[in-house]
Write a structure and sequence with these properties.
alpha+beta; 7-stranded antiparallel sheet; 47 helices; 25 strands; 50% helix; globular; disordered C terminus; calcium; GTPase activator activity; repeat; Rab-GAP_TBC_sf
Length: 1132
């Protein structure tokens, strides 16, 4: 390829000149091609270690003028053919022009300008994304594609120098991290190492200490482990690997392919060796941390952050921390954890102004909100730029019309607030309190009133350690809904989407889906002990919230346990508020908990087991022996203890959860195990351990509640002689913070990632086993073969997701279906699998047969087939009774021409009936016409072209074709009932090696059929030409010519005819529409020829074909030596 001219001082260092003229030199890298020797090995090693482009581009063209000692590299090539094309272009277009110049500087300037113009023209139509990457990085990406055979759609994210342990010897090389693959390449003194691992195959990824090196990265798959070490920046490399593996797991989970963020701002200058994708992933990681820290929505994008101080009026001091600015929020977090946190929605901002600087308060910035709160930031580095960015975002923020209820939140009386919360806006169910005046004497409520007075109220409230202390002591029932909305971030979503819930309800109600059916079954199981759900009003509200969310998020729809959590939300919130809290739970706070496979809950269950092993090692070993941790903990996490603990106690844990997040659930779970450690260590079986924990949780009580206790259903069903003593929920929460309060949210996220890989891959393995068991009895393959086929089929499906396809990923993957119907492929991918796995190699006819079989299997005509349909078709190609079933399927291919559309389910039903005890029939298949017969003959010729017994097979099929031609003519006469006088038929000899001459007669009925077949095959021979090796094969040529000269009696076909290809019908020829044969006639005729019977009864080694298919996308390694032909071309 042409490259931007680069200055080269030492032209002959490690390069060999092969061509030269007065202005240009063509060179080859030493060691590339023949005769490299030790020098070649050494140069190749240096190229890999030093990341030289000469490894993938071993040819180059230099420009030099006569007296100059400076050379300019203007082109490079990976092959001799590529560099020769550039050399010939230079000789043809520039040599004559350059000879006109008198000044050598002008010659160099002209050449450089010409090359740069060519490059600009080539890059004119390229995407802007690629142009943003540096030249060095684009060179590395091209190198990756060349070394590992990747398509242009595969994008490199970054590459690093490292060592890879192959056996006991480390190999120094380069690891390339692309969107979908981890690749490694090394070349040391002739030893080449290549490795390609798909991220979707990774089961474990972790940093650990190797024997020889202090730090290394271990990448585990189902089959093996790979160790990488000696990174310059191992933390950066590992974080990037984590991100890419996470994207792959998301792809397996949701079937969503990676999409580049086109709105990413361009850097001020091109960053060296940093791709746009790397910046994109870095930005995504920062956005995720930002959203998790402040509980913001998924579409919130961090614009930037800066160090600053915030004046806290409640503490009368400046707090050091960071300000974060995004498209809808200004947030602040103190450097010291829990000291102060602040969220200011831009929709609330009324004034942003720069205050006067002073030595005490440098670069201050004042932000005022609509509820009369003012926040003072200082010590801002670039205050003017920050104000401009905030101003830009404010201009994009739509104006809002606030309801009266907002004013109530700020300045309303206690009575006003109470009325607002119990008012059934969309049907809310509040726990009734005897009288409003009780509020003023309620200590928790008084504490919160004081807190609101000092720290503010609403979304702009200062959140401090005092806030957390109040939450741990319990939120008053009258404030629970308001504070849940505030701490979860649901308040912001509800405020920015007015009327959204009511629209969803209107659209969703009345629809009948799988989710609505499941909702109806669970409605009356949702807190049946609570009187709010003992009447139709409460049930109807719960139905509307769950149905609206299922309509909003069909990927989740409805999952058991959502009804329990939602019913509790409705006790303290309006329907709309409960809906947005449910959105926050399912989509942010408990990610993937409520999808069809409860992946998130399984991941946190695995995290809980790991935490138990670290914090309670003795108990962990005993619980593992009993196998009880996974049994008990799933319901704890899915329902936030609401289903296993008395309501008044569990709701206090929900308070803590909305403020602290999932870490409080882990803490309390560990505290429960710790409190029962002695009894659990002494228990004898799983049932006893579950009984101990169940009774303990049943007796966790809230001694501060003023309302009548609500009976717990689990407690009512649990019997025991002497129940254990009551446990105060506040004491349990306090113990969890004292013993396990050091647990950090970022540590949990790291552990979640580690376990997510294992859980999702385990679920994929379970799905594979379920699919194989479901279809094993109906297929012709063993258990191991079906598992291999499933892996290949799924790999094609996944590949279509990230390398482009005719349909979207959502159309190809429906999680609501059974496992064997979830993954689907289109016709192009099926054709690739058909070509690789089918027992018949049909040459040019293979795509046609694949397309016809695909149409036959595509029952719903959506252009996609699932794994069950795929195995059904392949089983017919590789049956146990190969002759009957295989020929039948092959015949159906030709009974169904491309232009006809029929109900193919009929034929599938007919095949299914073959396994029934009743007598098998094949008479329902339609007859084959003359056009289909011609296609069949041509296809059979192609099928036998590479068989060791091709000559015998050609003889046999020629005999069968001649016999079927006569059968068709005889059948036509009988069908015409003598209406027309039959003409004499050609005498066709069944003996292929003793042909009879063709009688000359007019173009009647008898000769027309033979003529059509002969003409079509004559045209077919012209479509495919043989290679030099095939032309020298006398046996192959003689077998083809014997077919043409003996069996079909065509005088126009030469002796060296090659009857392969699929030609169209000859212009002007007319097919005999009355000619037809049946399947019984074809099958009976073929069964008379032993070579054909042996061919179709030959058992297929499907495992060998699957192994070849697995390595079809194997690494395309560089050819280390040039052919004599290439070298002679160059030197000549």
């Amino acid at each position: 390829m042409w490259i931007t001219p680069e200055e080269v001082l030492l032209a002959n260092a490690l390069w060999v000149s092969e061509r030269a003229n007065p202005f240009f030199i063509l060179q080859r890298r030493k060691g590339h091609g023949r005769g490299g020797g030790f020098t070649g090995l050494l140069v190749g090693t240096l190229d890999v270690v030093l990341d030289s482009s000469a490894r993938v581009a071993p040819y180059r063209i230099l420009h030099q003028t006569g007296d100059s000692q400076v050379f300019w590299n203007i082109a490079c090539g990976s092959s001799r053919k590529e560099i020769t094309e550039h050399w010939e272009w230079l000789e043809a277009n520039l040599l004559q022009t350059l000879s006109i110049f008198d000044n050598e500087e002008d010659i160099t300037t002209f050449v450089k300008g010409k090359i740069q113009g060519i490059i600009a023209e080539e890059n004119k139509n390229k995407q802007t994304l690629e142009d943003e990457d540096s030249g060095k990085f684009r060179e590395a990406e091209l190198k990756m594609r060349k070394l590992f055979g990747m398509p242009d759609e595969e994008k490199l994210v970054n590459y690093y120098s490292c060592s890879y342990f192959k056996g006991r010897v480390p190999r120094q090389g380069w690891v390339y991290l692309s969107v979908n693959h981890l690749c490694f390449y090394s070349f040391l003194l002739g030893k080449e190492v290549t490795l390609v691992v798909q991220w979707t195959d990774v089961t474990q990824l972790e940093k650990d200490a190797a024997v020889l090196f202090p730090e290394s990265i271990r990448v585990s798959t189902r089959d093996t482990e790979h160790y990488f070490s000696m990174f310059l920046n191992i933390n950066e490399t590992f974080k990037l690997m984590e991100q890419l593996a996470n994207i792959a797991m998301r792809q397996l989970l949701d079937n969503e392919s990676f999409s580049v963020d086109r709105s990413l701002p361009k850097p001020c200058k091109t960053l060296k060796n940093v791709s746009t994708l790397k910046r994109d992933l870095d930005a995504r990681a920062k956005n995720e941390r930002y959203r998790a820290m402040f509980r913001l929505t998924q579409d919130e994008r961090l614009d930037g952050h800066t160090d600053c101080t915030l004046w806290t009026p409640f503490a009368k001091m400046h707090v050091v921390g960071q300000m974060f600015v995004s498209n809808n929020y200004i947030c602040f977090a103190s450097r010291e954890e829990d000291l102060c946190q602040l969220i200011i929605p831009l929709r609330e901002v009324s004034i942003v102004e720069k205050a006067d600087s002073s030595s005490v308060l440098p670069s201050p910035l004042s932000i005022s909100t609509k509820n009369k709160m003012t926040f003072l930031f200082a010590n801002l580095r670039d205050r003017d730029f920050l104000v401009q960015r905030i101003s830009d975002f404010l201009q994009r923020t739509p104006d809002r019309v606030w309801s009266d209820s907002k004013e109530v939140l700020v300045s309303g009386s206690l009575v006003d607030i109470y009325v607002r919360f119990i008012h059934p806006v969309c049907g809310s169910f509040q726990l009734q309190i005897s009288n409003i005046e009780a509020f003023s004497g309620d200590p928790p409520r008084q504490s919160w009133n004081i807190h609101f007075f000092e720290f503010g109220r609403g979304v702009c409230m200062y959140r401090t350690s005092k806030t957390r202390e109040l939450v741990l002591n319990g939120i008053p029932e009258s404030l629970r809904g308001e504070l849940w909305l505030l701490f979860s971030g649901a308040q912001n979503e509800m405020d920015t989407h007015p009327g959204y819930y009511s629209e969803l309800v209107e659209q969703a109600m009345g629809r009948c889906t799988l989710a609505t059916e499941e909702i109806e079954r669970d409605l009356h199981r949702s807190m049946p002990e609570h009187r709010a759900f003992q009447n139709e009003m409460g049930i109807a509200a719960l139905r509307r919230v769950l149905t609206a969310y299922a309509f909003r998020n069909p990927n989740i729809g409805y999952c058991q346990a959502m009804n329990i959590v939602t019913s509790v939300l409705l006790l303290y919130c309006t329907e709309e508020q409960a809906f947005w809290l449910l959105v926050a739970l399912c989509e942010r706070m408990l990610p993937d908990y409520y999808n069809t496979r409860v992946v998130g809950a399984l991941v946190d269950q695995a995290v809980f087991e790991e935490l138990t092993r670290e914090c309670l090692p003795l108990l962990y070993e005993r619980m593992q022996e009993l196998g009880v941790i996974s049994t008990i903990s799933l319901s704890w996490f899915l329902t936030l203890f609401l289903s296993v603990m008395p309501f008044d106690s569990a709701v206090l844990l929900v308070d803590c959860f909305f403020y602290e997040g999932i870490k409080v659930i882990f803490q309390v779970s560990l505290a429960v195990l710790h409190a029962n450690m002695e009894q659990l260590l002494s228990c004898s079986d799983e049932g006893e351990a579950m009984t101990i924990l169940g009774r303990y949780l049943d007796n966790v009580v809230n001694k501060q509640t003023v309302s009548a206790p609500i009976p717990h259903l689990h407690a009512l069903l649990t019997s025991g002689d002497e129940p254990p003593p009551e446990i105060d929920i506040f004491e349990l929460i306090k113990a969890s913070y004292e013993k396990f309060g050091s647990l950090r949210s970022d540590v949990i996220e790291q552990m979640r990632f580690k376990q997510r890989l294992k859980v999702i891959q385990s679920l994929e393995d379970t799905a594979k086993r379920s699919v194989v068991r479901a279809i094993m009895t109906d297929s012709a393959f063993s258990l191991e073969e079906l598992e291999e086929l499933y892996v290949l089929f799924k790999a094609k499906h996944i590949m279509s997701c990230y390398w482009g396809a005719s349909t979207t990923a959502a159309e190809r993957h429906d999680p609501s279906l059974a496992y064997l119907e979830q993954y689907r492929i289109d016709r192009g991918q099926f054709s690739q699998l058909f070509t690789a796995l089918a027992p018949w190699g049909c040459g040019a006819h293979t795509p046609t047969l694949a397309a016809r079989l695909f149409r036959l299997l595509d029952q719903n005509k959506d252009g996609l087939i699932n794994f069950k349909e795929f195995v059904t078709g392949l089983s017919k190609l590789c049956p146990r009774n190969a002759t009957a079933d295989g020929l039948r399927l092959g015949m159906v291919f030709f009974f169904l021409p491309e232009e006809k559309v029929k109900d193919y389910k009929y034929y599938l039903r007919m095949w299914a009936k073959e396994k029934e005890p009743k007598k098998e029939t094949i008479k329902d298949l339609p007859k084959m016409n003359q056009e289909q017969f011609i296609e069949l003959c041509k296809t059979l010729y192609n099928m036998f072209s590479e068989d060791p017994l091709e000559q015998e097979l050609y003889h046999s099929i020629a005999t069968v074709a001649s016999l079927l031609l006569r059968i068709g003519e005889v059948g036509k006469k009988f069908s015409n009932n003598g209406a027309r006088k039959p003409d004499s038929l050609c005498t066709l000899s069944p003996a292929v090696d003793s042909p009879l001459p063709v009688k000359e007669e007019p173009a009647g009925e008898g000769s027309s059929a033979e003529a059509q077949v002969t003409k079509a095959l004559e045209e077919a021979q012209l479509e495919v030409t043989t290679t030099e090796e095939e032309a020298k094969d006398d046996t192959s040529v003689s077998s083809y010519s014997m077919v043409s000269a003996g069996s079909l009696q065509c005088e126009d076909i030469a002796d060296d005819t090659v009857l392969i290809g699929c030609g169209d019908q000859r212009p002007g020829s007319v097919l005999d529409v009355d000619w037809a044969i049946t399947f019984e006639q074809v099958l009976a005729s073929m069964l008379t020829e032993p070579p054909l019977v042996d061919y179709f009864e030959k058992k297929l080694d499907i495992r060998a074909k699957m192994a070849a298919c697995r390595f079809q996308r194997a690494v395309e390694r560089q050819v280390s030596s040039s052919s004599e032909h290439e070298f002679s071309q160059l030197s000549g």
